[in-house]
Design brief:
Radius of gyration: 28 Å
Helix content: 55-70%
Oligomer: single chain
Structural class: mainly alpha
Number of strands: 0
Shape: elongated
Strand content: under 5%
């Protein structure tokens, strides 16, 4: 939806509501840039609040999908407006941004929902006489230049973290509930904050590398192959038997198997074991693997999707990836990989039942469906409530 230059606020607000983290640049950019131009033309004027709240409502797109040029331009307009709106202290005891910051639960993108209904904000009806107004503050408080300036800084912070100055320090309510026996000076102690910052940076760096970094798996050659790099069924079997749920190493094992599979070498049995290793790594993944992992596994899974024979000699005796068999799946895979080194566990299946297309194709299709589900979740944005 594109609004004309003289469009009423209701039409503009309707266009803003369509812009979110799923929007394309072709659809969203004209809307956000139109709103930014309106704010830039009158940064502290009568309608500045509407333009600031309009941009705040669209920050989920600007922070996650917009290119650097669009995001940077909008953030600069917001910072300029915040400076223009700043003035002498107001007489309000509270401001809406205070409750917004206190109720922050997960990440800054939640603050997108703090933008008020700009149509109701500008309809001229006093707060107490407008039953449709459900915001936590009065209309006067939302129109307060000080409040609008802070919301402009909040929007700029979401779009370009660390770029604005002057956002009031507020502790989210759920954090306050968890804070114990300590004085304020202890929480603001420089040594405490430096240690907390280092710890947080370590977690963020590890998460960034896990989700977006280049995953190196060559270290697994020493565990799964002979010293000369050739296939060693017994070594891989031992790794499969000992694979632990939830370890990053388990994700790396799936990537290692996928990369060797895509390389195209190996006997039919070796390639079967590499395929099942990929599936086993997905079975064990907790939490769900990041896109950097499962998207690289897709070609292996797609290789097994084929037309199924109507019948096979195995009936219902297909073992999947071993997860539904008695005992530990790793024990079954270890025996399949190196039967001379690992005894058959209870309920062990024959190699041809593992390799049967009626076993592999449904297994691959199930994991491909999960990959599609994870892709949809990634498109919708991590951290959102399912309900």
């Amino acid at each position: 939806m594109h609004a004309s230059a003289d469009a009423p606020t209701a039409d503009l607000a309707a266009a803003w509501r369509l812009v979110d983290h799923r929007s394309t640049a072709g659809t969203a950019d004209p809307v956000v840039l139109d709103c930014a131009r309106r704010l830039a033309a009158d940064p502290d004027g009568e309608h500045a609040a509407e333009w600031v709240y309009g941009l705040l409502s669209m920050t989920r797109y600007l922070a996650t999908r917009a290119d650097d040029t669009t995001a940077g331009q909008v953030a600069e307009v917001l910072r300029t407006a915040a400076g223009a709106l700043d003035g002498p202290p107001c007489g309000h005891r509270t401001h809406p941004y205070e409750s917004a910051l206190e109720q922050l639960d997960f990440d800054e993108l939640e603050l997108t929902g703090s933008a008020p209904d700009v149509v109701l904000l500008g309809n001229g009806t006093p707060t107490e006489a407008d039953p449709a107004w459900q915001e936590p503050g009065t209309k006067e408080e939302y129109r307060c230049p000080h409040a609008v300036a802070v919301f402009a800084r909040i929007a700029a912070e979401i779009i370009a973290p660390g770029s604005p100055q002057g956002i009031p320090e507020r502790i989210p309510q759920h954090h306050e509930d968890c804070i114990e026996d300590a004085p304020p000076a202890a929480w603001t102690c420089r040594a405490h904050l430096e240690a907390l910052a280092r710890d947080t940076l370590g977690h963020l760096t590890a998460a960034r590398d896990r989700f977006f970094g280049e995953r190196r798996t060559a270290y697994l050659d020493a565990d799964c192959l002979r010293p000369d790099g050739t296939w060693d069924a017994a070594r891989l079997a031992g790794v499969l038997r000992g694979a632990a749920e939830g370890e990053e190493r388990t994700e790396d094992l799936g990537l290692w198997a996928a990369r060797r599979f895509v390389g195209g070498s190996g006997t039919a049995h070796e390639r079967l074991m590499l395929f099942l290793t990929v599936c086993h790594s997905l079975d064990l993944a907790y939490p769900d693997p990041p896109p950097s992992v499962y998207r690289e596994l897709r070609p292996v899974l797609e290789s097994a999707v084929a037309a199924l024979p109507e019948t096979c000699p195995h009936g219902d005796a297909h073992p999947g990836a071993g997860a539904g068999l008695p005992g530990e799946a790793g024990e079954h895979l270890a025996h399949l990989c190196a039967p001379e080194s690992f005894a058959a566990p209870e309920g062990a299946r024959e190699p041809d039942a593992w390799a049967c297309p009626r076993n592999l194709a449904p297994l691959a299709e199930e994991w491909l469906e999960w990959c599609d589900t994870w892709d949809e979740a990634a498109e919708d944005g991590y951290g959102e409530d399912d309900d």
